[in-house]
Amino acid sequence: MSIPERLANLRAKMAEKGIDVYIVPTADFHQSEYVGEYFKARKYITGFSGSAGTAVITKDEARLWTDGRYFIQAAKQLEGTTVELMKMGEPGVPELTAYLEETLKAGETLGFDGRVVSVGEGQEYADIAEKKGAKVAYHDDLIDLIWTDRPELSKAPAFSLGIEYAGESAEDKLKRIREEMSKAGANTHVLTTLDDICWTLNIRGDDIEFFPLVLSYAIITMDGMELYIDESKLNEEMKAQMADLNVILHPYNDIYEDITKLGEDAVVMMDPDKLNYALYNNIPENVKKVEERNPSILMKAIKNPVEIENIRKAQIKDSVAHVRFMKWLKENVGKMKITEMSATEKLDELRAEMGNFIRPSFEPIASYGEHGAIVHYTSSPETDVELKEGNFFLTDTGAGFWEGSTDVTRTYALGEVTQQMKDDFTLVAISNLQLGNAKFLEGCTGMVLDILSRKPFWDRNMNFNHGTGHGVGYLLNIHEGPAGFRWKYRKGETEVLREGMIITDEPGIYIEGSHGVRLENEILCRKGEKNEYGQFMYFEAITLIPMDLDAINPDIMTAEDKMLLNDYHKKVYETISPYLNEEEKEWLEKYTRAI
Fold this sequence. Notes:
The chain is an alpha+beta fold. β3 (62-66), α3 and β4 (84-87) form a beta-alpha-beta unit. α14 (305-332) packs across α15 (340-352) and α16 packs antiparallel against α17 (446-458). It is globular, with a radius of gyration of 25 Å.
């Protein structure tokens, strides 16, 4: 069925339900960034497959809002669909809420599935409707009524993450959370975000594509926990562990009914950005609510010593695999057929050889030539192209090892590339190294430091249209708050940088129709010297893969830039070479030589 036909079916259901404007976000019932196949309603109704975007459908219009990562991809995928692309943040493009205010008329009804909209978003939509003299309908999933072959919810089994990987017991995590509940004056904490629940209980699963998470809801009290989950996913050992923690198991969807039975003595701590609108509205009106950020958000962002040691091991494994991949790629391109997809498969084969490899940690981005200009391009059988000499091959991929998750981007020069391409690559390398070598006082946020990555671009009247870095979860979400690097305010990424946080450093440059360059390291936030001026902090690069010297133009680098690159490459060789054979060591020595 074509997208226009699907839109026609949706409009028929809207008319049947008395809904004039219908919102379809990219979300599941848990405000997850990436979602399982069952929840890809926005993709179904628009054809756009990117991980971020919101569709709004009216009686005679369909529009899709997405950010700069997806402008090129969305424009291509929306061709012929009658869905209009709204480029967020671009001049003349109204924000989604402004469009709703303009479009919604008095007496009309604004509809959405309240389970896939956060409390904050739902309240914002309700405020707009009230302002316009309109109504809100949040009980109907209209996409479900027309999606006849919708995939089923995942039935994949869950698994435990042992203390040797987690570094802290679920019992101790619950104790810390309850301490925060007490500080907030709450005795009940409602959780719907999958990474928070999985982190708390030291469990993982296979319900979200790439991310090892389990579909679940939870209510934490001062002496127990109600867990809403498909019980068939838990083996007997896991059920016994839950019983030891006084965790009571319930069917997955029963929380919507159970939450209505909270007593008047309950004081509920909830995060309006992490709880869905439908569940929030099921909390009895006479129950006191305390709006606080989920305490586990900051707890899981600050990695404990065991996690850090494991993550270092995971990064070494991935770095060794990448060095072998880079050598294989450069020695074989032009001699054998290598495509975007087959190259990705080769990289994952090399990762698997390192041991304890579970699966990729997110959907791989493997883009050759002009595809590299599409920030979040995903190769497919329809778009897969052969790699040839004369351009760049960009890989932004990650591995889920038992020792942790990785997120790495490298761009490789295949054969000889143009001087402009080398200049672009070198600019990105300078940006990456400047931020990665920051020294700063404790108390800084990523917004303060982002200028270090942007300055080399802004000095040349250039920019890249995405954030510079994000936190990384431990076998959880690959994009993890509450800290990050970006120059514009973004809710949920404004936390002070703290020792133990792991954040990516990934500037890029994208030339539409030609090429793209991105270089991404994971960096560990650490404490440095403390003196009369305060506690100084610094970053340690834990991703140790060469930045392709075949694409470096030293003539546009300062002496400091060269020193930073040489120091980084020295560390790469010293750390990674012990894991290589003699031929590989010799090759690595060439690609980490001082310039």
